[in-house]
Amino acid sequence: MVPAELHIEVVYSPVAGATRQVVLSLPAGSTVSDALREACPELLGQGLAMGVWGKLRALDDSLRDKDRVEIYRPLLVDPKEARRQRYQKQRAEAKR
User: Fold this and answer.
1) How far apart are CA 48 and CA 44, in angstroms?
2) Cα dihedral 62, 64, 66, 72 in deg (nearest 10)
3) For the whole model, what pTM was predicted?
4) Cα separations (Å) of 12 from 15, 27, 76?
5) How far is CA 16 from CA 32, 59, 67, 74, in A?
6) Rounded to an integer, what distance in angstroms lies between the CA atom of residue 10 and that of residue 20?
7) Which of 63, 68, 60 is nearest to 29 (CA)?
8) Each residue of 51-85: pLDDT tens digit?
């Protein structure tokens, strides 16, 4: 049986260290785009990657009840490079 209303959670991090969570009730048959339009319309058209429960999804993919839509910010630094920089900083501080 398909529910008449979907309970969806939209989560994203506008800046490092902060998260925003919006809980929505949408009609059955709603898409990722519909959830984004309701939760944070300012992000529409920015070309951000999105997923549901950690798996990349397209804007026109349909949602199921209790889905968690995640909006991913682009990486500013390669994670390997960030670890390398932290290690070098720690090493330099240890020498003092």
Assistant:
1) 8
2) -30
3) 0.74
4) 9, 22, 16
5) 23, 24, 24, 11
6) 8
7) 63
8) 999 999 998 999 999 999 999 988 788 889 989 99
